[in-house]
């Protein structure tokens, strides 16, 4: 104990400790802070569900201290992936903010091939939208009261069997996905505001007219397996092909040959 009571010894110990901190611990700490590493940073705004492209991100060198362990360090890891959260320019990307597939409520929009389109129609009343019971994959008929001001309620032949691809509440969330599920769990289920249908361009025009008139009802035809649902849509496609026949390639080639033959005839007769 007398050893520690000696002020000189205590002073020497303090000096040694301070030197150790200044010349050993502090340099190591500074070295860890100044250590550089490459990460992927956002250069353009990216919305949730959007595909990340090369021009949206870049690789930059930053200090490696206090970076999340799952921060993305190579652009190849993110290009072609889908954003699972909104990203702003300057944000660095972590693994939890990207996904191999789009958000669940947007998946159906990425399955469009160009042959058919997605169009939404408003659910004007609780009854018009089947009392909120519609779900994705249902096959429905569109009932048009006073169709084209003719005083008759009909199901247009173009809209006998139409596939539902989404039912969306007024909040913008699709039924049975995302935050809508949380709301349902809290007994705050929102009623559908729109129904999104998979249609051809011809069908979309008729739906747009009915939407403008504000008169349409949705009638459920089938709910079940995709295989059986496909039979209904195939039957509808067959009707559409009869209502809106398209010229085949052979017909186009015949028309083209007929246009070219008169022009070639004088040249041939002149040669003779």
Topology (elements, then pairings):
Elements: H1 2-5, H2 7-34, E1 36-42, E2 57-63, E3 82-83, E4 98-99, E5 117-122, E6 139-143, E7 162-169, H3 178-185, E8 192-199, H4 201-213, E9 217-222, H5 226-243, H6 249-271
Antiparallel strand pairs: 1-2, 3-4, 5-8, 6-7, 6-9, 7-8
Organism: Muricomes intestini
Domain SAF: 37-99
Protein name: Pilus assembly protein CpaB
What kind of assembly state do the chains in view correspond to?
A: single chain
Cα-atom Rg, whole angstroms?
A: 33 Å
- Class from secondary-structure proportions: alpha+beta
Q: What is the overall shape?
A: elongated
How many strands in all?
9
Fraction of residues in H or I helices: 25-40%
Secondary-structure element sequence?
HHEEEEEEEHEHEHH
Strand order of the largest sheet: 5-8-7-6-9
Number of helices: 6
Strand content: 15-25%
Average per-residue pLDDT, rounded, comes to: 78
Largest sheet: 5 strands, antiparallel
Which parts are unreliable, with pLDDT below 50 for 5 consecutive residues or more? 177-187, 247-252, 263-272
Organism: Muricomes intestini
Domain SAF: 37-99
Protein name: Pilus assembly protein CpaB
Region (Disordered): 233-272
